[in-house]
Specification:
Layout lengths: L7 H6 L10 E3 L8 E5 L4 E6 L2 E2 L7 E2 L2 H13 L1
Antiparallel strand pairs: 1-2, 2-3, 3-4, 3-5
């Protein structure tokens, strides 16, 4: 499968549509096999399909508090 890496310029301007806070890039393997953008403020995880972020709140996965804490610990350790 062909994938395109998200550009740093795009990552710098994207924000969570719900919280308007910056997003954290989760490359494949960080939190599952896919690529995601994560908002710690809203605990929303947006998937990236073939290099295109799906920035719809209704399509995002909302992590519960314990899953969000675990992800935050993994991100702090990298």
């Amino acid at each position: 499968m062909w994938t395109m890496e998200l550009s740093p310029e795009l990552l710098a301007i994207l924000v969570c549509p719900e919280s308007k806070e910056p997003l954290v890039h989760l490359p494949p393997g960080t939190d599952g096999p896919g690529e995601y953008l994560y908002c710690p403020a809203s605990r929303l995880k947006y998937r990236v399909d073939d290099g295109i972020p799906v920035m719809l709140v209704e399509e995002a996965e909302r992590l519960d508090e314990s899953a969000a804490e675990a992800l935050s610990r993994r991100l702090a350790a990298r």
